[in-house]
Amino acid sequence: MGKTLFDKIWDKHVVTTVEGGPTQLYIDRHYCHEVTSPQAFQGLRDRNLKVMRPAKTYCIPDHNIPTKHQDQPIADQVSRNQVETLTKNANEFGLSLFGLGHPKNGVIHVVGPENGLTLPGMTIVCGDSHTSTHGAMGAVAFGIGTSEVEMVLASQCVLQAKPKRMRINVEGNLAASVTAKDMALYIISRITTGGATGYFVEYAGQAVRNLSMEGRLTLCNLTIEMGARGGMVAPDETTFTYLKGRDFAPKGKDWDEAVTYWQTLKSDSDAIFDKEITFNAADIEPMVTYGTNPGMGMGISGIIPTIDQVDAASRISYAKSLEYMGFKPGEKMLGKQVDYVFLGSCTNGRIEDFRAFAAYVKGKKKASNITAWLVPGSWAVAAQCQAEGLVDILNEAGFELRQPGCSACLAMNDDKIPAGKYAVSTSNRNFEGRQGPGARTILASPLVAAAAAVYGCITDPRL
Question: Edge-to-edge strands of the sheet including 140-143?
Answer without folding.
Answer: 96-97, 57-59, 29-32, 123-126, 140-143
